[in-house]
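Entry 14. Structure prediction run on the chain below.
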Amino acid sequence: MLLGRGSQAYEKASHLLLSFQAVNTLPNVQIVTQQSSPLTPNSSMLTLTQFYNTPLWSLNPCRIVSFVRSNRFIRPGTPADPIKHTTNQSIPKSGVPTRGMYSEVVFATLEGHLIAGEEAMRVYTVRKSADSTQFPFNIISRVSTSLGIPRVGSRDKVYFEVASYSKGSGLLGRMCMPLIRPLQRRFLTDCCNVMCSAVKSTL
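Output returned:
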């Protein structure tokens, strides 16, 4: 989803993503983390989810798999090595490399969760001259930060993507998946709408 253009939109979206402020404005989902320590890969967290519009809430343990704050990327014209926390997807080919900045957070469920899988959310920029706006989660080549951090151009497009890879965990989880899938789809849609509204309101 296109959020806006330029560094202001990118910084605002990255902050909303990495602080979980965007998710925690939703009325039926909350993410709980340890406020006293910075988030890093392997940090523990909890998701609190309301079961439709009932008084029932589910508290589930998760672990952060990836937590990236403003790193560089290159998306080549041919497939790159997939990052560890993604599934194999078809990779669209592009003749022109796409370069930019990205921030992301990916968390995986732990034992005791009704589902087994991952949620992945990313904010990224695309240069004005790039020929593609699609940036699937599995085609990043990360660039060493020793090369320096490039500026986000005033015309660079800022996008937000969220993806879910999951299945039922255990007998109860598998039985509940027909009821959980609509909640997941609503969560993905609501995340995109909240991010778009929050970023555009500040521009």
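Helices lie at 6-18, 21-24, 170-200.
Filed with the rest of this week's runs.
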